Amino acid sequence: MTTAIVASPDSVLRPTRVRYLVVAAVCVITAINYIQRNSIGAAETTIRDDLSLTREQTGDAMAWFFWSYALFQIPSGWLAQRWGPRWALTLFAVGWSLALGLAALSAGLAGLISARLLMGMLQAGVFPCVTLILAAWLPASRRAFASGLLNSCMLIGGAVSSQLTGVLLNYCGWREVFGLDVLPGVIWAVWFVFWFRNRPQDHRAVNPAELTIITAELTCSQPGTGKSPIQPSFRWWTLLLSAPMWLIGIQQFFRAGANRFFDMWLPTYLQEERGGSVLSAGLLTGLPSYAAIIGGMVGGWFSDSILQQTGSRRAGRQGVAIGSLLVATLCYLLAYPISDLWLAISVLSLGYFIGSFAAPCAYALTMDMGGKQLGVVFGAMNMAGNFGSWAFVWVVPRLVSWSGGWGLALAVFAGVHLLAAVCWMPLNPNGTIGDRAKVDRSKE
Q: Domain total for the chain?
């Protein structure tokens, strides 16, 4: 039942800003999410030595996370729509935090992989929930910037995880580090379930003026409210097999896979190929991530600005994504031959800064095109991305062993950015994917 909103004339003239707090809340859990999942990357060599594992085995432990994470994207998106993101995200956050605690208790490879699989299953729900929240709480012309903030907070979490883990490992073991990382997720979940509401209409702190701002560009139906299950007028397989869905999924496969070089394998690369210590590798790994933190926000603002000025999704979403990926590919190719470590990291950071413009474009595009099936659409895109993450994390140590060095792995890393740009080129971002799927089906 919708809570009646009673406001004074002054409050009507001055909109409340609860929507900004909502964005801040999902940004915080996004950062926590990445701190928890990426802590294994900076600790990889330490865990490898402690458990007497090979590089391929620790690579498997990191990679299998993405299998369960990917496979549970669509189910978690459906659950988020069915339950509403308030309860779904709360339960997911508590669950994946406790799964990290189980990883800290691992006695060998089997326990480590099992904990990572469980963590992946539960973390699969975070972004379907967050996307539903942003779609319900923000007008369309502000979604790319909010998505850029989310992307930046992912990278903040990854950078903090690499650097903080590198520092803490000088004072305590990896198990203690994992145990400490459990706490933020549980604390956030307890606060969130009491404060948040699925719809702005149901939040007591939202006044009519803010509600008018939020709903000005929203359609009459808001996904993810937890009021009723999805009732699509066409079969889900038609949606998932539509051309736009495949293009969105494949570009995410390549982009997400490439990003894993920075948060999973860059510390190991800097230690083995560049001769860095655990501490210096952890600190240097954060620099590209910090560049991309700024890049995600700039890219989201840039995409929204072009959309507002031109009214064209092709320019604001598609054009920005293609340009950023092409320039990023060039930067990565230029960075590899540079012998000076700091200069090489700087050029890599520039590439990551520019390449991160594509992330808010992709997230905003799912909100623009998702319609009533947003949870499923975003879940499908993120599922494809995490299959890419698994593939890249799994293949890197094998490419290094097969080629006798990191050159081939780095070439593959640059090349997948180019392939992602190619996927964006035929993608028409206009209309909803559901409507396009129905049109495609009518032609059969």
A: 1
